[in-house]
Protein 1
Amino acid sequence: CRTSLLKGKKVIVTAGGTREPIDPVRFIGNHSSGRMGFAIAKAAAFAGADVTLVAGSNDHLKTPAGVARRIDVGSTNDMKAAVDSYYDDCDLVIKSAAVADYRSAHPAANKIKKSDETLTLTMAKNPDILYGLGQRKAHQVLIGFAAETTNLIEYGTAKLKKKNLDMLVANDVSAEGAGFQGTTNIATFLFPDGSMEKLEKMDKEDLAAVIVERAAAILAKKNQ
Ligand code: C5P
């Protein structure tokens, strides 16, 4: 049901995967369905927030009711430009998007024709959007995601620190009922004071509601 947990707060949610062009008809992408991020955008809007949903490869997903604006993006650089342009006066960023770490260094202007038995692509490192936000964090609350297949807590804790986050949602994408596809997820929340909260397997919609509750509590504490 509708609450006022985030009433008057400006929230950016990123969702889905990025697409890095190789040529005009091909891209490098990932399996992110966008469901987690769309569920978070919906939950934040229900909690009264002014939500900007920056969506990657999710053309098939309908914009949730109450979301103030949706910006569809392709590449990581496009996502960065959209997020950066709303960052300064926003209160909370929840970055659930699966961002490509590398892009084709020189996307071809025309469709690449098949010829040799092998094709070598040179990749260039993408900017880490969330790391950049963490570097210039002022009043904002930053929540990141970490999808891992091993050493979940160790890698998650390292990301929380490196990216200067207020909370990290870590999930083992190799576990049954968790991760990119599907409607459920199994998450562990990590916090900067070293505490953690392990959640049971739950619907992404329910997990989104819990994430919004924790985010609102962190915001309230910061603004005390
Ligand atoms: O890819 P990684 O595990 O480092 O992602 C952790 C968090 O950082 C996620 O919230 C993701 O959206 C964000 N990220 C980003 N820009 C990147 C890579 C990751 O904002 N280039």
Note: Residues 76, 95, 97, 99, 101, 126, 128-130, 144-146, 159 surround cytidine-5'-monophosphate (CB under 6 Å).
Protein 2
Amino acid sequence: MTYETIIVEKRGRVGLIVLNRPESLNALNEAMMVELGRALDAFESEANIGCIVITGSERAFAAGADIKEMQGKVFPATYRDDFIGNWDRVTRTRKPVIAAVSGYALGGGCELAMMCDFILASPTAKFGQPEITLGIIPGAGGTQRLTHAVGKAKAMEMCLTGRNMDAEEAERAGLVSRIVASGDLVEEAIRTAEKIADMSMPAVMMAKESVNNAQEMSLTAGTRTERRLFHSLFATADQKEGMAAFAEKRSPQFKHK
Ligand code: CAA
């Protein structure tokens, strides 16, 4: 498959997607989001891929939706065509997706990173929702996912003023799972993805589903669903293997990868 706006590679059992519009700091345009969706579809259907990493450049993960492409749009068409309604493809990915963020992750770029399962950041990362400075508001989940991630106070301040968070503040606030030294970010994201891809895939996918349920469900419904998923894993050969390996003091060799 050929791509114009992204670079797609396989690193063993890890699918790597590099956003690649350097002339606009990886501004997210329609073509890029369609290609990102195609690359995710391809990795989802490839049995050998166990985890996906999305990254950008040193300077920018993505500086937001492409303002120049968006500038001339008018309300009836944005509504009729459900503009950016297809941008949430990442959230429907059943395999885990890691965002590796260096530089700017602004507007739609911050929203795309937050759609991933977790964010690894380099010390240069800057997160923000500057849409308000353009006379609009975030439209790809920023007001919702940022609030879930960092709480109302910070999310509200960021969405109302457009101020950025640096990597340290983002880590303290819980937006970022960990900061990784600059230059090492993508390799560390791939190492982390390899570790995940080496686990039992049904367990990985159920863990992902269950953590995500915490954003959507009540505690009672979420814990009940978690327990049912937990029970179902006792039907897998990998549960037998994982526990036998522990008892025999060896590494597990999971079958369902
Ligand atoms: N859309 C289109 N082009 C963009 C862009 C964007 N979001 N961000 C940067 N670019 C382009 C610039 O226009 C510039 O192109 P030219 O050389 O042709 O002029 C090039 O990328 C480099 O950018 P700068 O010269 O501005 O670089 P800088 O280092 O001085 O500033 C920046 C970097 C602070 C990120 C600045 O580019 C900026 O503020 N970008 C816009 C950020 C933004 O507002 N994002 C939100 C977009 S709206 C959105 O995302 C809606 C949504 O919720 C889905």
Note: The chain has two domains: 6-197, 200-248.
Protein 3
Amino acid sequence: ETLIEFRDVWKIYQMGEVQVDALKNVCIEIEHGEFTAIIGPSGSGKSTMMNLVGCLDVPSKGDIFLKSRNIADMTESDLSTLRGKTIGFVFQQYNLIPGMTALENVLLPLEIQEVEDDIALEKATEALELVGLSDKLSNRPSQLSGGQQQRVSIARSLACDPELILADEPTGALDSKTGRDVMGILYRLWKEKGKTIVMVTHDMDLAQYAARHIVLKDGMVVRDEINDNSSKNE
Ligand code: ADP
Ligand code: ADP
């Protein structure tokens, strides 16, 4: 089953007299187990596309299917439930709660999904272990480096066992070495744990970790291809 399908998707922003076609006639399918980078210069439509892939926004024209269901036919509350179970989000700025420890931050989405306490604790601990932070469970964000904070946010995105991890410029706030470490974690989650990952980046070096490149220019998909360099990361 295709995880996400865009069928002739347009996103048009109307600002007074001015109309911006942020996405034009985009057709893509994302399957389980893919590691995709969405690449393109500033203003090419990457964020717009991420918001649509994450079902945080709706298209102006065309259809988006999440697990074969047209999101246009779903109520906001059904969509929100399906999104919570299906997609984990990673942001450039981590979005961790400063007053909470690493463990508490990762427990949060499990509590929202009303997972039983002991199972939640098990899942959160496991997720933090996967990103190599077993020894930082009780550190608050301010007691962690930027790279470690991003690893906590990746652990949080993993907590509810999502089918898709959506990462928007996950290394944008990190220096290049730490950025590569974080990309290495995403790469292993894909390669070893079979996670489906879609990330946005404007950094071609970091895009090399991904096995598929979707390149946007002026709101159009100008390339959609396998990246053979991905396997060089082993
Ligand atoms: P990228 O993430 O690649 O930088 P965006 O998706 O943010 O590109 O933007 C694509 C185009 O849509 C740009 O021309 C941008 O100015 C425009 N745009 C994005 N969001 C909005 C908005 N909320 N209102 C109006 N125009 C927008
Ligand atoms: P990196 O080299 O990964 O960016 P840092 O140099 O920022 O990491 O931090 C090195 C170590 O110091 C990390 O293990 C981190 O947990 C710890 N550390 C960083 N900042 C603090 C802090 N404010 N309080 C306690 N420990 C910290």
Note: The CA atoms of residues 140 and 189 lie 24 Å apart.
